[in-house]
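Query form — protein ABC transporter permease

QUESTION: What is the three-dimensional structure of this chain?
INPUT:
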Amino acid sequence: MSDTRALAADLEPEIETMSARPTAILSVRQLMWRKFRRNRLAVFGLVVLTVMYMLAVLAGFVAPYGVRETHQQFPRTSPTVIRFIDADGQFHLQPFVYAITRAMDPETFSMVSVEDTSVRYPVELFIRGTPYNILGILKSDVHLFGVEAPGKLFLLGTDTTGRDLFSRILYGSQVSLTVGLFGVILALVIGASVGIISGYYGGWFDEIVQRIIEMTLAFPQIPLWLALATLVPPTWSSVQVYFAISIVLSILSWGALARQVRAMVLSLRTSDFVRAASYANATPPRIMFRHLLPSTMSHILVIATLTIPSMILGETALSFLGLGIKAPMTSWGVLLNEAQSVQVILQLPWLLSPAAFVVLTIISFNFVGDGLRDAADPFSR
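ANSWER: The structure tokens for ABC transporter permease are given below.
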């Protein structure tokens, strides 16, 4: 008994100190962010997407060549190997590439690229090359890396006309990644607005809206994509086609979001805070968009991150089928369109490199979406 009293006497100062410390009160956003950070896959996906979008913005700076720059002497060239050890076994601190020459393969009688080990070109940083502009504002001709002419550096090889595939992938990401964002913004505005209004008013308006959504969701996506894409006039510019595809994809994606938001509004419209706002003579638009919309925002963000991958895949599919983005613009779907032939895939397997970027982006969006979905309920374990 005496030992227990002594222990309590020793702990009493610590207990008083702990009780005197201010207790941090975390907001819902802080709780969500804390739980999101614990999901390693979600953090990994967020980092990958951040890098992807930074590369898309800085495509002109990171890409060693321009999107339309053609190397006529090096069509169908395999990826260039960056080396630190030369043919004689000597180590070089600065990476380098060998000169590329064209020779005939005695077995297939086709022209192939061959390294000339007698000529080396060091890989340099901040090298001048093809002029470009970033966001239409910053103009420059300094690239992140490259080699001095007449050396060539093709990280992922060249296509059938001699254009650097790595540079085209970076420029193509500007279309493929932004078409998803633009389409999702339109789908969110339409879906969230229709879902909130339909769930709040209900009645005959809700019935009509639900039947329209069911008709939209009943059509198979690929045939509907093809039908809507063929309505685009062939005389339209690439920019007009880009916005048309974004609108098409948003039209096909707002229905599912509207139904989910409607279900949440149906459960929230009888809540105490909605009744209090109604008793305070708040107008229906104010109740819907100042009280109900914030309550569904976390769910809307989760749906957005899970919808963007379908948007990207939709653009890729349309461009792959030749009905989407067309030259002179480029996208990942346009690049994959060049790899349709089995013969091309067997001879030029590096033309499938854009597929790796598509897969990595889709997986990263799904990781982030799963992390947000779990973090949307920060009080669960």
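ADDITIONAL NOTE: The chain is about 60% helix and 15% strand.
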